[in-house]
Design brief:
- This protein has 164 residues and is α/β, with parallel strands linked by helices.
- The chain has a single domain, classed as Glutaredoxin, CATH 3.40.30.
- It contains five helices and eight strands.
- The protein has helices spanning 2-16, 63-78, 95-104, 115-124, 153-163, and strands spanning 22-25, 34-39, 44-46, 53-59, 84-90, 110-112, 133-137, 143-148.
- β1 (22-25) and β2 form a beta hairpin.
- The longest helix has 16 residues, at 63-78.
Length: 164
Amino acid sequence: MSKIAFLALSAFLFCSCSNIGEKNHIVLNDTNPLKTTFSPSNKTLNINNKRAFMLFFFSTDCGACKEAVPSINFFAQKYSDSFDIIGVMNQSMGFDKDIELLRAQNIIFKVVSDSKSVEYLSRVVGGVYGVPVIYMYDKDGRVSSKFLGLTPQNKLEEEIKKLI
């Protein structure tokens, strides 16, 4: 009898934990939440629509981050049909002030700033210890490249073209 109870409990836990890596994140400048699915065993991260994407980690007081924004905005417009860009803003100043910052800096790509979302995405990539940092993901959710610091626009675009 104890074996049956153990198997039933194991099956329940397995089924209820199968989506343990799924998270929803509030996007500051979009009405739709960002849904991510992370698989630690496969080291994959997928977002809403299973397209190639970029995670752009930045902070509110980083000069190099501010310099990178026009390039990231350019990609967000040019590749909106085939590539996703998610900004991950460290050092949130609160929802209203974060929205003001996005407007002041003309940021058009999707941005999350909630501390739980920032911590979660930082852990997914293995920790972020400096900004700006960009992680590029292929359509299968695998990291294809990482760029630390201010990276030339043409180098980023080459990588995007490889991924789409």
